[in-house]
Amino acid sequence: MSRIAIDAMGGDYAPKAIVEGSLWAAQEYGVALELVGKQDEIQKEIDKIKSRGYILSDCGTHGHKRRVKIDVDKIDYTITHASEVIGMGEAVGQSIRKKKDSSIVAAVKAVAEGRCEAVVSAGSTGAAMAASLFGLGRIHGVSRPAIAVTLPTMKEPLVLIDGGANSDCTADMLAQFAQMGTAFAQCAVGIENPTVGILSIGEEEGKGNALVKDTYPLLKDLHEQGKIDFVGNIEGKELFKNKANVIVCDGFAGNVALKVTEGTASMLLKMIATEFKSDFIGCIIGLMAKPFLRRILKRINWEVFGGMLLLGVKGISVIAHGRSSAYAMRNAVGAAVRVLNKDINSKIAESVNK
Amino acid sequence: MSRIAIDAMGGDYAPKAIVEGSLWAAQEYGVALELVGKQDEIQKEIDKIKSRGYILSDCGTHGHKRRVKIDVDKIDYTITHASEVIGMGEAVGQSIRKKKDSSIVAAVKAVAEGRCEAVVSAGSTGAAMAASLFGLGRIHGVSRPAIAVTLPTMKEPLVLIDGGANSDCTADMLAQFAQMGTAFAQCAVGIENPTVGILSIGEEEGKGNALVKDTYPLLKDLHEQGKIDFVGNIEGKELFKNKANVIVCDGFAGNVALKVTEGTASMLLKMIATEFKSDFIGCIIGLMAKPFLRRILKRINWEVFGGMLLLGVKGISVIAHGRSSAYAMRNAVGAAVRVLNKDINSKIAESVNK
After folding, report:
1. Do A260 and B262 count as a contact with CB atoms less than 8 A apart?
2. Is residue A51 a contact partner of residue A43, using CB atoms and an 8 Å limit?
3. What does the alpha-carbon distance between residue B14 and residue B6 come to, in Å, rounded to a whole number?
4. Structure pTM?
5. CB pairs under 8 A between A and B
6. Which residue of A62, A231, A317, B126 has the fewest CB atoms within a 10 Å radius of its CB?
7. Cα distance from B6 to chain A (closest Cα, Å)?
8. Do A240 and B264 count as a contact with CB atoms less than 8 A apart?
9. Helix or strand or coil: residue B332?
10. How far apart are CA B145 and CA B289, in angstroms?
11. By the 8 A CB rule, do B349 and B22 touch?
12. Number of H helices and number of E strands within chain A?
């Protein structure tokens, strides 16, 4: 049975939502857990779930909670005590070095020492990245690890890389992201021959900023070598139109794209709610329309995808949203489970060193 | 009466939609027109409208067309013949130099020679920018003109600058964009003391890429000098939350943000339509919900805002969407009208030279 290390103290709703979500995932996906953090706090949460027999969680539709039965006795878990926590606002480099007994550093250690096969954290993204990088090390040949994010579209999910690990990039880095993203799409999304595009402004070759223009010929080269299936520039408005399975970009543009998606969807859904509430008939129609809109909410909800993978480190490291609920945490563990036993890191090593 | 130069041949639906939309705007806003392009084609469109007495146009809700009465005899217009057209795919620099008698170059000339107060084009963005820059010249002290885009939010509209004129920027350029954007928000949106933010990944000072980190202290300086009201970093997901009236960024990130907004909204609305069509009851509820959704569509439709302003050139230059319908064109002319007689360019000159 695979064992997953959980940073039980990371995230806005830790340790409650983190413990609940990971136990749920353990039961759902049949994996064992090493819960890392303050022993007593973790134990208290587990005891509560055990005595109650269920957790209350929304399931991808904000605010609509339901009971999920959890049989704690059937779950294989251990608790590893870590006395410190790295907060959301802390300077990353410093805190990783100073807080040697922080939950994220100790959780990564569980993977580095071979007790676990993956680590999942909903704490500070910077801290999770740094801890994974220092604790696991880079895969030979990878110059910079990058964040791969899986996004919903009308058809199959889309992989965006880099989602924010490297705010300034070189063309060589983007070319590696294309190779790592290809391996990830094969392993995690199950697309045998994923197509790769580069995020740009304008479809034609030659459109874009200096970085895109420098990266384009490198991606063409990789295409000719048969290493990736490069399809050219992808504009922001085409992001969700399945023109490419993997889209590469620097971490700044990638994070802007991700967050703008989140912001636009949230504004639009708020506008819809406001519009329906504008008059009496609207309220009634709005009520009837609710189940339909809720289904959409579920389809586009980032919580369903749960976690982003840090690619390029020697191990599996999933970074979950800081606002992760139990449901989001369950799915973040699920994101780790999806790439277990898929040999993703050998594939990445092979592709960047060939 | 102010006169506006129209590039009648620019845009996917030119000259029909362009002529219809500008006549509509002339009637609506009480401005005169100089229609620039192929004389016979323009005249033919005008004759059609004259004999019919109306145009058929959607009004911000795709596909739902209504009649708009146009009394051509009451509109003050002239036609200026230009024999050439610059197509969407053409190399910008070359075509501007070679096609001296193209409609966009000739329309800009009408402003440069003082016959018109603004130029509006729905043709190639690159060609419209280059023609405006070469034909009108930069305002003294402005290092690079930038595109200001007005976006809908839940409250007052937001100004994003640069929307795509400069794909690679320096910190000094972004600092000027902040000043130009402030002048624009005052003139075009009517906000007396607009706040300014910088698009970044992470809210705290120090988060972002090298460009953002370099720009931050410059914006702080301008704030201390009382030139702008700087409020710090704005994340992509906060774009529409009215945390700042003006958001500065390089043209690459700006264009990605704009296009991702468009792509997300379009995917979401498609998902809603699909979801309602999934069963019989859904179809009925969907039909009832339609007027509500249509009102939202109208609120978020880029066509309502119509045009982006190229700030920093000596004159008013509005760049409309290439897919502009008559309705979008009417609003693009409206965007020019909103800044007429507001002395926006003296304000920009004053702020960058003070």
Report:
1. no
2. no
3. 11
4. 0.90
5. 173
6. A62
7. 25
8. yes
9. helix
10. 43
11. no
12. 12, 13
